[in-house]
Amino acid sequence: MRIAGRRVGADAPVFIIAEACDNHMGSLDAAKEMCLQAKLAGCDCIKFQHHLPDEEMLPNVPMSSNFDIPLYEFLKRYALTLDQHEELLKHCDEIGIMYLCTPFSLKAAYELDELGVPAFKIGSGEMDDIPTLRAIAKLEKPMIVSTGMATFEEIERTYAALSSSGISFALMNCLSEYPPRYEDVNLGVIVQMRDSFPNAIIGHSDHTPDLFTTFASVALGAKIIEKHVILDKRTPGPDQAVSIDFFEMRELVDGVRKVEAALGSQKKVHQAEQGIREWAHRSIVSLVDIPAGTIISQDMVWSKRPGTGIPSYRMEEVIGQVVTRDIRANTLIAWNDLAQESL
């Protein structure tokens, strides 16, 4: 999958998204600062949300546990306008970080498409809205879809719909608890999704208040990471309880890159290990003085460091051999000390 020319998935580096959500509380200045801090933290992308409340919901939608006022009222008060999104997109272009945005209605998707967003991030609540997903897919841009609150059968249905659309897409393992219980995160689903959905890039959208499950998800194969961010965890925000600050985001980026670097699967002796191997491994050593012509018995030799002599695993080949010179106690045995050197 390519987003704005950037390769995502397969053997590409993990794509790291800073999810600003609505933690800017309607302040364009705060949103711009979040863009800058995401860039400085090393994120690949910062993502916002485009809400058109009357297109998105009925006014009497039940209040979510992470809001202290009804969601409809909150969005009317704090959601960014389309003009503000356009300004943020331009700001991101200027500072060199990708801008993405989640449309929470089909009209919002059309408006973002007109702005020129390179891809769409779809929230968990819209994951099973197949008619809307198919309509957005017709815009022929990559799609990243979160899968919180979903059964595996529902994810399969969305996967089938997007696969038939012909677009590139990703599915994000996700848990819509704010914050979640660790026993509910189910990181093993990442492996199951990788095996079950070969046409999709698999990622992880993390709502835990720390970094541990994010690192584990990368080790399990997640190729996209999304993490909520806030400028200051002491300030209000609808997702404040599940957000990290940008100091922590720097740690996340650094940790993800280190985990990636550690994911090799070829077991070998690395060049940096060779010197340690030479002193740390064991060789066959004389325990007593052994005169020339003596047949070596088990009680005359054992293994000690360094590992520059005959390897200890060849002990049975040495026992029973005749020594060709006097060997003093505590000396490395060499093949040319033995009558049958070829062994």
TrEMBL record:
Residues 283-341 form the AFP-like domain. PROSITE patterns: AFP_LIKE. Signal peptide: none annotated. GO terms for biological process: carbohydrate biosynthetic process. One of its GO terms (molecular function) is N-acylneuraminate-9-phosphate synthase activity. Pfam families: NeuB, SAF. InterPro entries: AFP_Neu5c_C_sf, Aldolase_TIM, PseI-like, PseI/NeuA/B-like_N, SAF, SAF_AFP_Neu5Ac, SAF_PseI/NeuA/NeuB. It comes from the Bacteria. This is CMP-N-acetylneuraminic acid synthetase.
